[in-house]
Sequence to fold (200 residues):
Amino acid sequence: MENTLRAKQTIVETVKFLYDRGLSSGTGGNVALKCGDKFYLTPHGMGPELRYDIGPDDIIVYDMKGNKIHGNREPSVEGNMHLGILMGCPAASASIHAHPYYATVFAYAGKQIPVDMEATRELVGEMPVIDIAPAGSKKLADDVINDVLARSSEIESHGIGLLLALHGMITVGRTMAQALGALEAAEEAARCALLSRLLQ
Ligand SMILES: [Zn+2]
Fold:
């Protein structure tokens, strides 16, 4: 029970951090965590309807087979994507889907974020761009899961990230802190790459 509350609290604190720091906008976003023998997922409409203002009771809980076992709210539309990542990649415990202000510009343009900075390489590494697919679709979930599973060995040394064309970003980590670190590193790299053009 204590583990459950801690896991839910970790998600609540993470999403508040995401929204307060501009690491995601109210147009979307969802977060999942694997803890003990359960998965935890944010509710549907967390961005547009709730503005990331959620509490522990809003989190949906799943068993290790992906069966919903607790939660009054509807799950995030990207739930299958998160569960597929965390079930398919034993080393991963946390996944974040966000619409970061600057990284989403690269996603919009379908261009990779440069990884010139040391922190970018150390915290997230190369971030491929996944083809356009509707939010919540099976194609989007399958494409993301396939990419993450193909690069899952990278999670031993750092978080991994990828861009969703015309949409946003996903990061995955051994811990929530690692997934969050990957997201911050990606956003910083995107911001620096874009704004440094003004100085040229
Ligand atoms: Zn989204």
Q: What stands out?
A: Residues 2-199 form a domain with the L-fuculose-1-phosphate Aldolase fold (CATH 3.40.225.10). The radius of gyration is 16 Å. The chain has one domain: 2-199.
